[in-house]
Amino acid sequence: MAEARCFVGCCGWTEAQARYVVDFPAIELQTTFYQPPPIAVLKRWKAQAPPGFRFCLKAWQLITHTPSSPTYRRLKSAISATERELYGSFQPTEQVWLAWERTREVAQVLQADVIVFQCPKSFLPTRENTDNLTTFFHQIERDNRMIAWEPRGEDWRPELIREICAENNLIHCVDPFQSNPVFGDTLYWRLHGKGGYRYQYTDEDLAELDARLHAQGHVSGPNYVMFNNISSRQDAQRFQQRRAIC
Q1: Sequence spans of domains, the chain
Q2: Residue 120, by phi and psi: left (phi above 0), alpha (psi -120 to 50) or beta?
Q3: What confidence tens digit (pLDDT) does each residue in 10-58 have?
């Protein structure tokens, strides 16, 4: 069985787009999480990308995070006090649904391959949260796009993650140095840095990462390896070079 194709990239533009799309075959956009860019900007990004370049993106934080998150500071419009309880945690509210429709529009313009839903550690596996999450993923129109879900925190046990992913057709998104994926025919790995964002991966780390990727040979792919640390561009380039040599 041939090895699934692996797309290596960074979380966010780490250099000018004209150079980035030469260096890497894929990107995970971060601005879509904080504040989705105007349509004109998205169209320009798409037009300037070569054929075959893959866009992935993080879903808008209004879906996953509540207004208590410090990331809300980057919103262009403040959330009113009367609506603060209506955002985040996949709640069945008009506010969350409109945030999804905006995320979906972004994905359509970019013809994105994957939409990533990263949850905060404060999103715990309560009955209410898991019910809301399941209802949300059952209702959305995916437009044949893959959906990756990144739960965080030790309260999310592998058995529960597997059950939720299977029921909702989700890719279990992980940092492979922290945990192993428990569901999905595609790998979606986000490398946050060992111990934190300021970590730079060593040659030994990248060799281990490559070995972990080969060990997932049963996964049909395509697979995505996205670096999200301070030296993401350099580390991603080194990883690509290693895979080209090996």
Answers
A1: 6-245
A2: beta
A3: 999 999 999 999 999 999 999 999 999 999 999 999 999 999 999 999 9
R_g (Cα) of the chain, nearest Å: 18
- E-strand ranges in 83-153 read 114-118, 146-150
- Per-residue pLDDT tens over the stretch 144-168: 999 999 999 999 999 999 999 999 9
Report the CATH architecture of 6-245: Alpha-Beta Barrel (3.20)
The residue with tokens 């986000």 is 190
Q: pLDDT tens digit string along 84-101? A: 999 999 999 999 999 999
pTM exceeds 0.85 for this model:
yes
Q: Residue for token digits 């209004």?
A: 62
- Length of the chain measured in residues: 246
Amino acid, res. 192: H
Could you tell me which of 29, 221, 35 has the C-alpha nearest to residue 112? 29
SS3 for 4-62, per residue?
CCEEEEEECCCCCHHHHHHHCCEEEECHHHHCCCCHHHHHHHHHHCCCCCEEEEECCHH
